[in-house]
Design brief:
alpha/beta, 6-stranded mixed β-sheet, 16 helices, 14% strand
Length: 430
């Protein structure tokens, strides 16, 4: 069943719940980190205990008067939106120093505060990133392929079918993965996402101490990052897109605040370049690939809808190979892959050689450095041309390449004669 806010239902488990099940019985404090609206509070409070709502000024005033109220109570103590009262971080750290019993604290935070804690919390408070709903969590199809199994290197047989079509994926891109903003009414959906973007510019940034003198300028930068989705476009080109028509371009030092602001709110979610520890590969590009935390934000920032995307409409200010819908489909895949990889203690990167001779959308890196290579194609079929970079990497890495697959909009999972897997994105799970 698709996860929407139009139906009343009890809490639905997320992939991150499995991580919490494994970690909370052993760690004294965990900090769930992610943008507003991804469900951090619901996930944290589902685990019972007691809750401190630090976005409630009255509750903060009481804690300021009697700090011990923050850290005393049934465990786990959920400290919601801790960045609203940055001193809470150090209070938790000191409480852990005094009593390191497992499962004591769950903090949630949607931004990095300008007033940073006096101590990083390293060794006491373990961060855990939370992102919007994956396709698996949205329940649009039965999953039959596990990323964790691909990471074992056994190259399992791939089976499973889905009825998800290009239109299905496009609708999921437009709707997005914020649990509280999934409406069956397109108008309500647009209003919810527009309101989310307005809040970022008008409220969240000032609350972080970032004064945006001209909100329209901030929105232009936001749109420029959206237009750069799934590209490794340089900062200069993003700056040109954001300041189109202006004769004098602002200096990088002037505009760096816009990028920093979106990073602190965890809205930008770039995929870093892969830097292998061996010397098999030379002349790799170090630039990250740009992604927003949810491709639905990019769609709304650019004023598009499902019909426009299916017609091939997209921004022209940032050059790219293929359609903008293809880039958004890659961003949708990134959203799920990062959640699944984190659950499997792996990292998501990308590969591009100098000049773009070889490029692979995602390289999932296991703790021992071995990798799963993944290409993303907005297509129901996979040709020899589509797998050429994967076959090249297989030749370069040998046994260090655990598996190589292509994620598609097709209907059936299978493995090609050359060993490359073909997997509809909808059937991929953790």
């Amino acid at each position: 069943m698709t996860w929407t806010t139009d139906s009343t239902s009890l809490y639905q488990r997320r992939v991150i719940d499995t991580e919490l099940d494994a970690l909370l019985p052993h760690l004294p404090a965990i900090s769930l980190e992610g943008p507003k609206g991804v469900g951090k509070t619901a996930t944290a409070t589902e685990r019972g205990g007691s809750v401190r709502h630090l976005d409630n000024p009255a509750e903060v005033e009481v804690i300021k008067a009697q700090p011990s109220r923050l850290t005393n109570g049934p465990s786990p103590i959920v400290i919601d939106e801790w960045q609203r009262y940055p001193a809470s971080w150090d209070l938790v750290r000191r409480a852990v120093d005094a009593d390191s019993s497992p499962g004591r604290f769950l903090l949630t935070g949607s931004a990095t505060p300008s007033e940073r804690p006096t101590h990083s919390g390293a060794g006491r408070i373990v961060p855990l990133r939370m992102r919007p709903l994956t396709l698996f969590e949205r329940g649009i199809s039965e999953t039959s392929v596990s990323l964790s199994e691909l990471m074992r290197g056994t190259q399992p047989a791939l089976i499973g079918t889905t009825e998800a079509t290009l239109e299905t994926y496009t609708n999921e891109i437009v709707i997005g993965g914020f649990p509280g903003m999934r409406f069956s009414s397109p108008r309500a959906q647009r209003a919810a996402l527009d309101g989310y973007i307005d809040r970022i510019v008008d409220t969240d940034l000032p609350e972080l101490g970032i004064q945006v003198r001209n909100p329209a300028t901030m929105r232009r930068w936001f749109r420029a990052f959206a237009a750069a989705t799934a590209t490794n476009t340089s900062f200069d080109k993003i700056r040109n897109a954001a300041t189109s028509g202006e004769e004098e371009k602002p200096a990088k030092t002037t505009t760096a605040v816009y990028r920093e602001a979106l990073e602190r709110l965890r809205i930008l979610d770039d995929v870093p370049a892969w830097t292998p520890s061996n010397n098999h590969l030379q002349r790799l590009v170090a630039a990250p690939k740009h992604h927003l935390v949810d491709p639905a934000l990019a769609v709304r920032l650019l004023g598009l809808d499902a019909g426009a995307l299916l017609d091939g409409t997209g921004p022209k200010v940032i050059p790219r190979d293929g359609t903008f819908l293809g880039s958004l489909f890659e961003s949708l895949a990134a959203q799920s892959l990062r959640v699944f990889a984190q659950a499997g203690e792996a990292n998501v990167t990308h590969l591009r050689t100098m000049g773009g001779i070889h490029e692979i959308d995602f390289v999932i890196v296991r703790g021992d450095g071995k990798v799963v290579a993944i290409e993303v194609k907005l297509s129901t079929t996979v040709t020899q041309h589509d797998v050429r970079h994967l076959l090249w990497l297989k030749q370069q890495l040998g046994g260090e390449l655990l598996d190589a697959v292509v994620l598609t909009t097709g209907s059936e999972a299978y493995r090609r004669a050359d060993g490359i897997g073909v997997i509809p994105l909808a059937v991929l799970g953790p």
